Amino acid sequence: VFKSHLQVGAYDANDPLLDPVWGLLAEAGIPVVTHCGSGPAPGAYTGPEPIGRLLARHPRLRLVVAHMGMPEYAEFLALAEAYPEVRLDTTMAFTDFSEGFSPFPAAERGRLADLGDRILLGTDFPNIPYPYVHQLEALERLGLGDGWLRAVCHGNAAALFGLPGV
Predict the structure, then answer these.
(1) pLDDT for position 56
(2) CB of 117 closer than 8 Å to CB of 153
(3) Using CA atoms, how far apart are residues 134 and 130, in angstroms rounded to an integer?
(4) Most buried among 20, 75, 148, 152, by the most CB within 10 A?
(5) For residues 53 and 16, what is the distance between their CA atoms, to the nearest angstrom?
(6) Which of 22, 122, 110, 114 is nearest to 70 (CA)?
(7) Which fold has domain 2-160?
(8) CA-closest candidate to residue 112, choices 88, 134, 133
(9) Which residues on neighbouring strands pair with residue 4, listed in sequence order?
(10) Residue 48, exposed/middle/buried by CB under 10 A (0-12, 13-18, 19+)?
């Protein structure tokens, strides 16, 4: 796994110097976890637009968007719909903590079911302001069913990394 934290690193994923790196990662099928949403504080290189440009050049990039792209949930869901190798992780999303400042739009819940095979459990544990189990409770509270929960909590990551399923 390769990690790209655009917000903390304050760098442009579209810098021409990085293009060969993205190309190699895409060609090798190596998953890239990226912090590219504009939460909790927007940066010069965060948001769906720069990632959309990156994916237009490297559509096979196996990108895992941390925090579901918070707060631009709808836009990052759209990128996942447009690019089959894009996945989203649930870190902090749907918890009481994040719902207080960046609620997931209720109108987008159906898209979670539609993309159920490309959503992965994320936690940031132990660096979270709530008990670990609350992330799991928040996912269950969505009411998307046991199959969806199993996929998000295990099956999707197992498939991404070529591990045996349950």
Answers:
(1) 99
(2) no
(3) 7
(4) 152
(5) 12
(6) 122
(7) TIM Barrel (3.20.20)
(8) 88
(9) 34
(10) buried
**Token pair of 130 as six digits:** 């709530």
Show Cβ contacts of residue 59 under 8 Å, excluding neighbours closer than 6 positions.
26, 83, 85
- Sorted by sequence, the CB contacts under 8 Å of residue 77 that are 6+ apart come out as 68, 69, 88, 108, 111, 115
DSSP string covering 138-154: HHHHT---HHHHHIIII
Helix (H) or strand (E) holding 134: helix 132-141
Question: For the segment 45-100, what is each residue's pLDDT rounded down to a tens digit?
Answer: 999 999 999 999 999 999 999 999 999 999 999 999 999 999 999 999 999 999 99
Query: DSSP state, 65?
Result: E
Q: How many residues does the chain have?
A: 166
Phi, psi of 48 (to 5 degrees): -70, -30
Residue whose token pair is 């050049």 = 57
Residues 6+ apart with CB under 8 A from 54: 13, 14, 22, 61
Separation between Cα atoms, residue 142 and residue 153, nearest integer Å: 14
Locus of tokens 């990690």:
3
